[in-house]
Amino acid sequence: MRPFDVSQVDFAKGDGLVPVVAQDAVNGLVLMLGYANREALEETLSSGELTFFSRSKGRLWKKGETSGNVLSVKELLLDCDRDTVLARVVPQGPTCHTGSRSCFGAEHVPIADPIAQLDATIAVRVQTPPSGEAPSYTHKLLGDRNLRLKKLGEEVAELLVALTDKDSSRIAEEAADLTYHMLVALHAEGVTLEEVQRVLQSRAKSP
């Protein structure tokens, strides 16, 4: 987690509390809103998991302390008035108690980066064991390295054929299939899309 100076936060405006907006660090989806006092922010910095102050219970409350769906914090950002905190997080499962990814029901709203949304869905599959007699296709790939690599190779070949045929619609479809299988393979090896993005950013040349 990047450094964050709690002493810069203006707690006085909210009687010792400030709003904390949790945002998915990968796809930008707003997940939830909570409140934190100084102790809660210090606990977040110490543990790396987003912690709030529960106004109803009158105590610190770590998101996911019961469900296990914690919010791993990548960084905390303070707004210009120093009275609101943005927490960029990686959710370890659904954020809302209803089972939705967002407390705002935003999974039905298109977000800016569908690749990041796909990556987030795969990340949830990684954290959630398969249930029932018929595991999802993603779980099958995650649990079978040979199948995973075989399918990845097949998708590369199918994209090459589409490119050779100059079939624009098939090219887009095959590229989408390849992207999915690539992301599954990355997650199976513990590599995240964010890590790939950092590599790309490091290679970007200034205009």
What does this structure look like?
This protein is α+β, with helices and mostly antiparallel strands and 207 residues long. The protein folds into two domains: 6-107, Phosphoribosyl-AMP cyclohydrolase (Ubiquitin-like (UB roll)), CATH 3.10.20.810; 113-203, Orthogonal Bundle (Helix Hairpins). Helices cover 41% and strands 18% of the residues. It contains six helices and six strands, in the order ββαββββααααα. The strands form two sheets. A four-stranded mixed sheet has the order 2-1-6-5, covered by helices on one side. It has a two-stranded antiparallel sheet with strand order 3-4. A hairpin with a 6-residue loop joins β5 and β6. It is elongated and about 65 Å long.
Helix and strand element order: EEHEEEEHHHHH
**How do the strands of the widest beta sheet line up side by side?**
2-1-6-5
**Radius of gyration over alpha carbons?**
20 Å
The count of domains is 2
CATH hierarchy: architecture of the largest domain: Roll
Q: Give helix % range.
A: 40-55%
Report the count of strand segments: 6
CATH C-level of the largest domain: Alpha Beta
Q: Secondary structure elements and their pairing?
A:
Blueprint: E1 18-24, E2 30-36, H1 38-47, E3 51-54, E4 59-62, E5 71-78, E6 85-91, H2 114-127, H3 137-143, H4 145-165, H5 168-188, H6 193-203
Parallel strand pairs: 1-6
Antiparallel strand pairs: 1-2, 3-4, 5-6
